[in-house]
Protein backbone atom coordinates (compact mmCIF):
# COMPACT_ATOMS: atom_id res chain seq x y z
CA UNK A 1 0.00 0.00 0.00
CA UNK A 2 1.34 3.44 -0.91
CA UNK A 3 1.44 5.58 2.23
CA UNK A 4 3.31 8.52 0.67
CA UNK A 5 1.23 11.64 1.22
CA UNK A 6 0.14 13.55 -1.86
CA UNK A 7 2.09 16.72 -2.67
CA UNK A 8 -0.78 18.85 -1.36
CA UNK A 9 -1.09 16.82 1.86
CA UNK A 10 2.68 17.05 2.37
CA UNK A 11 2.60 20.81 1.81
CA UNK A 12 -0.26 21.30 4.25
CA UNK A 13 1.51 19.19 6.89
CA UNK A 14 4.68 21.26 6.38
CA UNK A 15 2.72 24.51 6.62
CA UNK A 16 1.06 23.43 9.88
CA UNK A 17 4.44 22.40 11.27
CA UNK A 18 6.06 25.70 10.27
CA UNK A 19 3.21 27.73 11.72
CA UNK A 20 3.68 25.72 14.90
CA UNK A 21 7.28 26.93 15.07
CA UNK A 22 5.85 30.40 15.57
CA UNK A 23 3.37 29.15 18.16
CA UNK A 24 0.51 29.58 15.71
CA UNK A 25 -2.44 27.33 15.01
CA UNK A 26 -4.01 29.11 12.06
CA UNK A 27 -6.81 26.89 10.75
CA UNK A 28 -8.01 29.60 8.40
CA UNK A 29 -4.60 29.95 6.72
CA UNK A 30 -4.28 26.19 6.37
CA UNK A 31 -7.80 25.73 4.99
CA UNK A 32 -7.37 28.58 2.52
CA UNK A 33 -4.03 27.19 1.35
CA UNK A 34 -5.48 23.72 0.91
CA UNK A 35 -8.49 25.03 -1.02
CA UNK A 36 -6.26 27.12 -3.23
CA UNK A 37 -3.99 24.18 -3.99
CA UNK A 38 -6.97 21.94 -4.83
CA UNK A 39 -8.29 24.59 -7.24
CA UNK A 40 -4.85 25.07 -8.79
CA UNK A 41 -4.31 21.32 -9.18
CA UNK A 42 -7.72 20.97 -10.84
CA UNK A 43 -6.69 23.68 -13.27
CA UNK A 44 -3.45 21.86 -14.06
CA UNK A 45 -5.35 18.59 -14.60
CA UNK A 46 -7.66 20.38 -17.00
CA UNK A 47 -4.54 21.36 -18.94
CA UNK A 48 -3.63 17.72 -19.28
CA UNK A 49 -1.33 16.92 -16.35
CA UNK A 50 -1.65 13.70 -14.37
CA UNK A 51 -3.05 14.06 -10.86
CA UNK A 52 0.29 13.84 -9.05
CA UNK A 53 2.08 16.15 -11.47
CA UNK A 54 -0.82 18.60 -11.25
CA UNK A 55 -0.52 18.74 -7.45
CA UNK A 56 3.24 19.16 -7.65
CA UNK A 57 2.82 22.03 -10.09
CA UNK A 58 0.24 23.67 -7.83
CA UNK A 59 2.48 23.32 -4.78
CA UNK A 60 5.51 24.67 -6.66
CA UNK A 61 3.53 27.70 -7.73
CA UNK A 62 2.26 28.35 -4.21
CA UNK A 63 5.73 28.94 -2.72
CA UNK A 64 7.56 27.54 0.27
CA UNK A 65 5.64 26.66 3.45
CA UNK A 66 8.48 28.10 5.53
CA UNK A 67 8.28 31.49 3.85
CA UNK A 68 4.50 31.53 4.01
CA UNK A 69 4.43 30.66 7.72
CA UNK A 70 7.03 33.36 8.40
CA UNK A 71 4.91 35.93 6.60
CA UNK A 72 1.83 35.01 8.54
CA UNK A 73 3.80 35.15 11.77
CA UNK A 74 5.30 38.52 11.03
CA UNK A 75 1.92 39.86 9.95
CA UNK A 76 0.52 38.77 13.28
CA UNK A 77 3.32 39.68 15.62
CA UNK A 78 5.02 42.60 13.92
CA UNK A 79 4.94 45.45 16.45
CA UNK A 80 4.18 48.96 15.21
CA UNK A 81 6.87 51.63 15.00
CA UNK A 82 5.89 53.27 18.30
CA UNK A 83 6.28 49.98 20.15
CA UNK A 84 9.68 49.33 18.56
CA UNK A 85 10.86 52.77 19.63
CA UNK A 86 9.48 52.48 23.16
CA UNK A 87 10.88 48.99 23.71
CA UNK A 88 14.32 49.93 22.38
CA UNK A 89 14.52 52.98 24.65
CA UNK A 90 13.23 51.31 27.80
CA UNK A 91 15.22 48.09 27.37
CA UNK A 92 18.52 49.83 26.66
CA UNK A 93 17.97 52.20 29.59
CA UNK A 94 17.15 49.26 31.86
CA UNK A 95 20.16 47.26 30.70
CA UNK A 96 22.59 50.07 31.48
CA UNK A 97 20.92 51.19 34.69
CA UNK A 98 20.45 47.63 35.94
CA UNK A 99 23.86 46.57 34.78
CA UNK A 100 25.43 49.41 36.68
CA UNK A 101 23.67 48.45 39.85
CA UNK A 102 24.24 44.73 39.65
CA UNK A 103 27.38 44.27 37.58
CA UNK A 104 29.48 47.32 38.15
CA UNK A 105 32.60 45.21 37.88
CA UNK A 106 31.91 44.08 34.33
CA UNK A 107 30.48 45.84 31.31
CA UNK A 108 30.32 42.67 29.23
CA UNK A 109 26.74 41.69 30.18
CA UNK A 110 25.56 45.24 29.43
CA UNK A 111 27.25 45.31 26.05
CA UNK A 112 26.00 41.82 25.22
CA UNK A 113 22.51 42.97 26.20
CA UNK A 114 22.75 45.99 23.90
CA UNK A 115 23.98 43.86 20.99
CA UNK A 116 21.14 41.41 21.57
CA UNK A 117 18.54 44.19 21.81
CA UNK A 118 19.69 45.69 18.51
CA UNK A 119 19.76 42.26 16.91
CA UNK A 120 16.31 41.11 18.04
CA UNK A 121 14.54 44.36 17.18
CA UNK A 122 16.17 44.55 13.75
CA UNK A 123 15.29 40.93 13.06
CA UNK A 124 11.67 41.39 14.07
CA UNK A 125 11.24 44.70 12.19
CA UNK A 126 14.14 45.15 9.76
CA UNK A 127 12.39 48.13 8.22
CA UNK A 128 12.52 49.91 11.58
CA UNK A 129 16.12 49.00 12.43
CA UNK A 130 17.08 52.68 12.18
CA UNK A 131 14.26 53.61 14.56
CA UNK A 132 15.25 51.01 17.12
CA UNK A 133 18.84 52.30 17.00
CA UNK A 134 17.64 55.84 17.70
CA UNK A 135 15.58 54.46 20.60
CA UNK A 136 18.55 52.53 21.97
CA UNK A 137 20.79 55.58 21.67
CA UNK A 138 18.18 57.60 23.56
CA UNK A 139 18.05 54.91 26.26
CA UNK A 140 21.83 55.00 26.54
CA UNK A 141 21.83 58.80 26.72
CA UNK A 142 19.12 58.82 29.39
CA UNK A 143 20.92 56.21 31.44
CA UNK A 144 24.38 57.75 31.17
CA UNK A 145 23.54 61.45 31.27
CA UNK A 146 19.88 62.05 32.05
CA UNK A 147 19.29 59.77 35.00
CA UNK A 148 22.66 58.31 35.97
CA UNK A 149 22.44 55.70 38.69
CA UNK A 150 24.25 56.68 41.88
CA UNK A 151 26.42 53.79 42.95
CA UNK A 152 26.23 52.60 46.51
CA UNK A 153 28.97 53.33 49.02
CA UNK A 154 29.99 49.67 48.88
CA UNK A 155 30.41 49.85 45.13
CA UNK A 156 32.53 52.98 45.35
CA UNK A 157 34.62 51.46 48.09
CA UNK A 158 35.16 48.33 46.04
CA UNK A 159 35.50 49.71 42.49
CA UNK A 160 36.03 53.42 42.88
CA UNK A 161 33.85 56.30 41.66
CA UNK A 162 32.01 55.87 38.37
CA UNK A 163 33.81 56.93 35.22
CA UNK A 164 32.41 60.11 33.63
CA UNK A 165 31.80 59.06 30.05
CA UNK A 166 32.37 61.56 27.24
CA UNK A 167 30.21 61.99 24.14
CA UNK A 168 32.68 59.85 22.22
CA UNK A 169 32.24 57.11 24.84
CA UNK A 170 28.48 57.24 24.25
CA UNK A 171 29.00 56.85 20.51
CA UNK A 172 31.26 53.89 21.17
CA UNK A 173 28.57 52.28 23.28
CA UNK A 174 26.07 52.86 20.47
CA UNK A 175 28.35 50.88 18.17
CA UNK A 176 27.39 47.67 19.96
CA UNK A 177 23.63 47.79 19.30
CA UNK A 178 24.40 49.03 15.78
CA UNK A 179 26.48 45.90 15.21
CA UNK A 180 23.63 43.84 16.62
CA UNK A 181 21.16 45.57 14.28
CA UNK A 182 23.35 44.79 11.28
CA UNK A 183 23.44 41.15 12.33
CA UNK A 184 19.67 41.19 12.82
CA UNK A 185 18.94 42.60 9.37
CA UNK A 186 21.44 40.21 7.75
CA UNK A 187 19.92 37.24 9.59
CA UNK A 188 16.43 38.23 8.53
CA UNK A 189 17.47 38.58 4.89
CA UNK A 190 19.24 35.23 5.07
CA UNK A 191 16.46 33.30 6.77
CA UNK A 192 13.50 35.06 5.18
CA UNK A 193 14.61 36.61 1.90
CA UNK A 194 12.11 39.04 0.41
CA UNK A 195 10.88 36.60 -2.24
CA UNK A 196 12.35 33.17 -1.70
CA UNK A 197 8.89 31.99 -2.38
CA UNK A 198 7.78 35.31 -0.78
CA UNK A 199 7.27 37.97 2.24
CA UNK A 200 7.73 41.43 3.66
CA UNK B 1 8.80 40.30 -13.88
CA UNK B 2 10.86 39.52 -10.80
CA UNK B 3 8.74 39.30 -7.68
CA UNK B 4 10.99 41.77 -5.82
CA UNK B 5 9.80 44.54 -8.14
CA UNK B 6 6.31 44.06 -6.75
CA UNK B 7 7.36 44.71 -3.18
CA UNK B 8 5.33 47.55 -1.80
CA UNK B 9 2.79 47.30 -4.62
CA UNK B 10 1.17 43.99 -3.80
CA UNK B 11 -1.46 45.48 -1.52
CA UNK B 12 -2.57 47.96 -4.17
CA UNK B 13 -2.73 45.16 -6.72
CA UNK B 14 -4.86 43.10 -4.36
CA UNK B 15 -7.22 46.00 -3.70
CA UNK B 16 -7.58 46.47 -7.44
CA UNK B 17 -8.17 42.76 -8.04
CA UNK B 18 -10.88 42.65 -5.36
CA UNK B 19 -12.29 45.98 -6.52
CA UNK B 20 -14.16 44.36 -9.41
CA UNK B 21 -16.18 42.26 -6.97
CA UNK B 22 -15.89 39.79 -4.10
CA UNK B 23 -13.35 37.04 -4.85
CA UNK B 24 -11.66 34.12 -3.15
CA UNK B 25 -7.88 33.77 -2.98
CA UNK B 26 -7.39 31.53 -5.99
CA UNK B 27 -9.51 33.81 -8.18
CA UNK B 28 -7.57 36.84 -6.95
CA UNK B 29 -4.25 35.19 -7.85
CA UNK B 30 -5.61 34.31 -11.28
CA UNK B 31 -6.86 37.86 -11.77
CA UNK B 32 -3.39 39.26 -11.00
CA UNK B 33 -1.82 36.85 -13.43
CA UNK B 34 -4.40 37.41 -16.16
CA UNK B 35 -4.53 41.21 -15.95
CA UNK B 36 -0.75 41.44 -16.03
CA UNK B 37 -0.49 38.99 -18.94
CA UNK B 38 1.48 36.71 -16.67
CA UNK B 39 4.04 39.37 -15.77
CA UNK B 40 3.04 39.36 -12.09
CA UNK B 41 3.85 35.75 -11.46
CA UNK B 42 4.13 35.80 -7.68
CA UNK B 43 4.15 32.64 -5.61
CA UNK B 44 0.41 32.22 -5.02
CA UNK B 45 0.81 31.85 -1.26
CA UNK B 46 2.17 35.39 -1.06
CA UNK B 47 -1.27 36.90 -1.38
CA UNK B 48 -2.74 35.37 1.78
CA UNK B 49 -0.61 37.15 4.41
CA UNK B 50 -1.06 40.35 2.38
CA UNK B 51 -4.84 39.88 2.37
CA UNK B 52 -4.68 39.33 6.12
CA UNK B 53 -2.81 42.63 6.54
CA UNK B 54 -5.39 44.46 4.44
CA UNK B 55 -8.10 42.97 6.59
CA UNK B 56 -6.32 44.03 9.78
CA UNK B 57 -6.19 47.57 8.40
CA UNK B 58 -9.92 47.51 7.70
CA UNK B 59 -9.52 47.82 3.93
CA UNK B 60 -10.83 44.36 3.16
CA UNK B 61 -13.44 42.15 4.83
CA UNK B 62 -13.84 38.42 4.41
CA UNK B 63 -16.20 35.58 5.24
CA UNK B 64 -16.52 31.90 4.49
CA UNK B 65 -18.85 31.18 1.59
CA UNK B 66 -20.61 27.84 1.19
CA UNK B 67 -22.01 28.67 -2.24
CA UNK B 68 -19.83 26.06 -3.94
CA UNK B 69 -19.06 22.39 -3.20
CA UNK B 70 -16.12 23.42 -1.02
CA UNK B 71 -16.30 26.44 1.22
CA UNK B 72 -14.06 29.33 0.31
CA UNK B 73 -12.96 32.51 2.05
CA UNK B 74 -14.37 35.39 0.02
CA UNK B 75 -12.82 38.86 0.20
CA UNK B 76 -14.50 42.15 -0.57
CA UNK B 77 -13.48 45.79 -0.29
CA UNK B 78 -14.79 47.78 2.65
CA UNK B 79 -15.81 51.41 2.07
CA UNK B 80 -12.42 52.41 3.47
CA UNK B 81 -10.76 49.96 1.10
CA UNK B 82 -12.58 51.43 -1.87
CA UNK B 83 -11.51 54.95 -0.86
CA UNK B 84 -7.93 53.74 -0.43
CA UNK B 85 -8.03 52.10 -3.86
CA UNK B 86 -9.24 55.29 -5.55
CA UNK B 87 -6.56 57.34 -3.81
CA UNK B 88 -3.83 54.81 -4.64
CA UNK B 89 -4.94 54.63 -8.27
CA UNK B 90 -4.66 58.39 -8.52
CA UNK B 91 -1.21 58.48 -6.88
CA UNK B 92 0.02 55.57 -8.94
CA UNK B 93 -1.17 57.12 -12.22
CA UNK B 94 0.71 60.32 -11.43
CA UNK B 95 3.82 58.39 -10.43
CA UNK B 96 3.71 56.16 -13.53
CA UNK B 97 3.25 59.17 -15.82
CA UNK B 98 6.20 60.93 -14.22
CA UNK B 99 8.44 57.89 -14.46
CA UNK B 100 7.50 57.26 -18.07
CA UNK B 101 8.10 60.90 -18.85
CA UNK B 102 11.62 60.68 -17.50
CA UNK B 103 12.40 57.24 -18.88
CA UNK B 104 11.17 58.11 -22.37
CA UNK B 105 12.62 61.60 -22.22
CA UNK B 106 9.40 63.34 -23.25
CA UNK B 107 8.42 64.99 -19.96
- Rounded average pLDDT of chain B: 88
Proportion of residues in helical segments of chain B: 40-55%
Q: What is the radius of gyration of chain A?
A: 24 Å
Strand order of the largest sheet of chain B: 1-3-2
What spatial form of chain A do the alpha-carbon principal axes imply? rod-shaped
Compute the separation of the termini of chain A in Å. Answer: 42 Å
How much of the residues of chain A is beta strand, in percent?
under 5%
As a whole number of angstroms, the C-alpha radius of gyration of chain B is: 15 Å
What keywords describe this structure?
heterodimer, A: 200 residues, mainly alpha, 74% helix, rod-shaped, disordered C terminus, B: 107 residues, alpha+beta, three-stranded antiparallel β-sheet, 4 helices, globular
Write the layout of secondary structure elements.
The complex is a heterodimer of chains A (200) and B (107).
Chain A lengths: L6 H15 L5 H20 L4 H12 L2 H13 L3 H22 L5 H17 L4 H18 L6 H7 L7 H25 L9
Chain B lengths: L9 H10 L3 E2 H11 L11 H10 L3 E6 L6 E6 L1 H26 L3
Antiparallel strand pairs in B: 1-3, 2-3
Helix pairs in contact in B: 1-3, 1-4
Amino acid sequence: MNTTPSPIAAFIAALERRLGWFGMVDRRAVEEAEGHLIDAAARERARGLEADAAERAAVARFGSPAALAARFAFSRYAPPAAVVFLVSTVVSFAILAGGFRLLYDSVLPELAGLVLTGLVLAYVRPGFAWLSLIGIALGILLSEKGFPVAPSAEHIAKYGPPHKGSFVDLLKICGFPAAGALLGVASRLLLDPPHRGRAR
Amino acid sequence: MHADKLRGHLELLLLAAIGAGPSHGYAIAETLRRRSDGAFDLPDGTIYPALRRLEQRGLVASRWSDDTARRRRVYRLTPAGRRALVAEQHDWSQFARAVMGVVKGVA
